[in-house]
Amino acid sequence: MDVLGTRLEALERRVGGAADRTGAEGLAAQVAHIERRLSKILADNAALALGLEKYEKLRDVIEGDGDMELQRRLLGVDAKVELILLNEDAPAVLSDLRTIHDLQSRINQPEYAAVAGLLPQVCGLEQRHGGQAAEFRQVVAEVSSLVDRYHAETEALSEMFIRWDQALTAIERRDVAYGYRVPKKLEDPDYSPEQLQNRQQSARLVCLVNAFRSIGHRATDLDPLKLQSRQAIPELDPARYGIVDPHERFDVNGILSIAADDGSTTATAAEIFEALSAIYCGHVAFEFEHIPEMAEKKWFADYVESTSREGELDAAKKRRFHELLARRSPAAPKHTLTITLAAAAVFDNFMQKKFGQVKRYGLEGAESAIVALDELFSLCSSTGISEAVVGMPHRGRLNILIDLLKYPARALFHKLQGNAEFPGGLPASGDVVSHISSSSSLSYGSEGALKVTMLPNPSHLEAVNPVAMGYGRAKQMYLYDHNTDPGCALGDRLVGVQLHGDAAFTGQGVVMETLGLSNLPHFSLGGTIHIIVNNQIGFTTPMTNARSTHYTSDVGKMVNAPVIHVNGDYPEEVARAIRIAFEYRKLYRKDVIIDLITFRRWGHNELDEPSLTQPRMYDIIRARESIPHLYERRVLADNVISEADAEATRASFASHLEGELAASKEYVPQARELKGKWAGMVVSTGATGQMDTGVAVDTLREVGERSVAVGPGFKVHPRLVKRHIQPRLKQLAEGTGVDWSTAESLALGSLLREGYNIRLCGQDVGRGTFSQRHAMFVCQDTENVCVPLNSGGDGHGKIEVVNSNLSELAVLGFEYGVSIQSPTTLPIWEAQFGDFNNTAQVIIDTYIASGETKWLLQSGLVMLLPHGYDGAGPDHSSSRMERFLQLCDTPMDVSGNNSVQNPNMHVAVPTTPAQIFHLLRRQMVRPYRKPLVVAGPKTILRLAAATSTLSEMGPGTSFRPVLPDDHVTSPDKVRRVVLVSGKLYYDLAKARIEQGEGAGDRVALVRVEELCPFPSRELASELARFPNAAEVVWCQEETMNAGAFSFVQPRLQSILPSAMPIHYIGRGPLAAPATGVASVYKAEQADIIRRALTCA
């Protein structure tokens, strides 16, 4: 480069004379070419810029001497580099980084450093001596050659950074903050200086445009029934902003995203007003100005406005929508749906004729919802999305199943004729037709197949929302973790779809709770598309009494979701609304709401008479055409189809339904459950016996040590070091004194080691309500988070530690959704206090307790519910275990063969760390999944008497439903057997010791660790140890109308001699779970202990 520069200087001194214009032009072109290439390399290479930024952070790694420990010390607490060095891919990544370093070193050499300064020399020389073109061309050729070399080096560097960034992304997917996912923040460009200047000069027009964007929706034609009159909105009058001349011309650049056919950005006031009215006040309305991010608002306005001139749909799309509204032949080509919209009309008419007394909750009046879903699924298929998870209520469910999701009509008709939907012999009670689920594969032409899963729903409206969200998240995390594309993000492979009713969307709190999860890092789906099927009425309640907001969708603004309102009478506009929503979600990975305004042709169900309460509305409905007929008239007028085509479509589908009805007589249901990932599971109808859930002691020590290990530079709080880490390491070394949190960590860590994944979720679960768990550490210097159990190698599972928001209903529903998606993930939900589970009662009743019975959906969900009376008052004492026990389907007579039934869920009250260790491991080791409810401890979490040894968790050990009284030295002297669960045992045992010698010979304390399934055999065996016992006592600290007594008493009586009574000792009946007066609590507790140990 120095030689070349010298030649340039010498050339400038020698040459002179007039310029040769031709040569100068040629030289200028070449110089401009060089300048453009350098500009591209140095200014426009985003990947290079990103790489250089990361390179600076990793200089110590790149220039290290190869010693990994030394490099880790140099790096300190840089979290991303810690990930690289903790990962087995580190050597390959470091090799890449060193290559980057070599390239960077070469690019920084003097000859390259002079390239940027060379161009001004060449340009100046050309300006002064352009006539000497020949020699200049030789010099420029050398410059160009040098630039080519520079370009090659920087391109290689850029490609290396891209590869390295992809590798880093892959590593981050397995990072210590497993599951923490946030969408990439997009920074849309701001207005250019020219646009800003134009906005200032045309401030009047800016005000008018902003008015249309903000409140244009209030003047839109949205109501198919015309019950809601269109308002006159003064703010939309141009004169309000001083625009009075319709011929006045404005430059709309930077103000409105419309352009003339010739590309011109100028328009008259009249043309602008017409465009704004068409865009914002037609049959589609938009609300997006509430979004706080300016870039999102700008994108939304630009997209809506710029796509408003796309023109009419082509004939093929119109035919398809007609078919969706007016069913075509099943033998049609694959690029159209096999079940389509005369389908909706024909299907509803068929159902009314054949099953007129069935409450089917049809879609008549809202058939455009089928168009919406079809357009959405088509877009998913064309953009690489492979799965869609749908949660919806009863309204229109059968239409969508039959018309769109390929659910066999014969299976539906079989069910409607009073038959079961499951094969004979399976332990399922079934459910009503409006709760049917489906999983089908849809094909849209040459695009890939789209798997659509519609989850079962209860009649509790909107309760399915968090379940669908959790199911989709679990499925998406699997797709995400197993995707080989490093650029894959949440939302790329799966979309969540939720349909809602207008009254329920506003009225049910679970809607708000679920929306509250939508943007949280451990809950996000990458955006859900919500479609409110707005019938403008809730059963018999009009809109004026159903909500306090203007729109039913207004609650969605709590998460800043954009809202698109659309008149359901216009299927093509409905499809356009879907396209806009889909593009927004694809770009920003956030929720978006479509308010599909329709009507309900019949009452709440087909047997209801709606005019009793809404006479005017139903006079209008009965006098108007259906949506399929309206759309058919439009496509007939456009010559898209003929009358004969329309009639043939309807006739073909009607004939198809008749054939399916005939086939339903011989239809035999097929088992759809326990397929795919669930193929290894079994339907458990009987007890499987005790399972060995123990783990080698050396493995337990290794897992336990890893549970408190952090990397160099990570500063743990000193109190944790003293009170958590050091005691745990001591317990592991000695093999004794293992406390509750250590046993829990050993269970979870050993399951991770076996390849299972775990999701631990709830309020404050990372630390634990009682500061006992510490599954995650927070660096005191940087606030970086470390989950030590995630430091396992290849083949290990991952634990996702989720400190949830302050919700029980939606969060528990979410975790249930996770649990039914895969048998290889252990989902654990812990309530802050067990008392708070009652705010999620709908999920407990309709899903957790009955999901397998109704739908054959197994769930391994664990509910950890801190429980125990310690003077904390009525709302911090009881998990209300009596409610869970009441939901269990175990028989009351557990004598003989009745004792082997495996109930719908298991309820346990473990009292030792070894017991919780085995319970958690048992959830995954056994070949089926059952919900587990654990009334867990509070005060005994650190109780010295409530500890275990590692040998109690070693090989050959398992959970014990009954723990015998090992302190009884003479069983034949025992006169009273006290059966007890929970921490009350330790109070009784302590008091018995304090009574002195001989107390243990009169009263035996037997712990019932698992209440359901009731341990009849184990109890009978233990009671047989005491041949002279005169009485059996059930002792509890709960009130008589709570706790386990009412569940235990009849079952225990069935295995005892009839002459032996069962006595109750505990608190008396009380409406509240516990007293809030400390002195009363202490007196009650002391009385219970005294009475339990007093034996004649």
From TrEMBL:
<keyword id="KW-0786">Thiamine pyrophosphate</keyword>
<dbReference type="Pfam" id="PF02779">
    <property type="entry name" value="Transket_pyr"/>
</dbReference>
<feature type="domain" description="Transketolase-like pyrimidine-binding">
    <location>
        <begin position="738"/>
        <end position="943"/>
    </location>
</feature>
<dbReference type="GO" id="GO:0030976">
    <property type="term" value="F:thiamine pyrophosphate binding"/>
</dbReference>
<dbReference type="Pfam" id="PF00676">
    <property type="entry name" value="E1_dh"/>
</dbReference>
<keyword id="KW-0560">Oxidoreductase</keyword>
<dbReference type="InterPro" id="IPR042179">
    <property type="entry name" value="KGD_C_sf"/>
</dbReference>
<dbReference type="InterPro" id="IPR029061">
    <property type="entry name" value="THDP-binding"/>
</dbReference>
<dbReference type="InterPro" id="IPR031717">
    <property type="entry name" value="ODO-1/KGD_C"/>
</dbReference>
<dbReference type="GO" id="GO:0006091">
    <property type="term" value="P:generation of precursor metabolites and energy"/>
</dbReference>
<dbReference type="InterPro" id="IPR011603">
    <property type="entry name" value="2oxoglutarate_DH_E1"/>
</dbReference>
<dbReference type="GO" id="GO:0016624">
    <property type="term" value="F:oxidoreductase activity, acting on the aldehyde or oxo group of donors, disulfide as acceptor"/>
</dbReference>
<dbReference type="InterPro" id="IPR005475">
    <property type="entry name" value="Transketolase-like_Pyr-bd"/>
</dbReference>
<dbReference type="InterPro" id="IPR009991">
    <property type="entry name" value="DCTN3"/>
</dbReference>
<dbReference type="GO" id="GO:0005869">
    <property type="term" value="C:dynactin complex"/>
</dbReference>
<dbReference type="InterPro" id="IPR001017">
    <property type="entry name" value="DH_E1"/>
</dbReference>
<dbReference type="Pfam" id="PF16870">
    <property type="entry name" value="OxoGdeHyase_C"/>
</dbReference>
<dbReference type="GO" id="GO:0061640">
    <property type="term" value="P:cytoskeleton-dependent cytokinesis"/>
</dbReference>
<comment type="similarity">
    <text>Belongs to the alpha-ketoglutarate dehydrogenase family.</text>
</comment>
<protein>
    <recommendedName>
        <fullName>Transketolase-like pyrimidine-binding domain-containing protein</fullName>
    </recommendedName>
</protein>
<dbReference type="Pfam" id="PF07426">
    <property type="entry name" value="Dynactin_p22"/>
</dbReference>
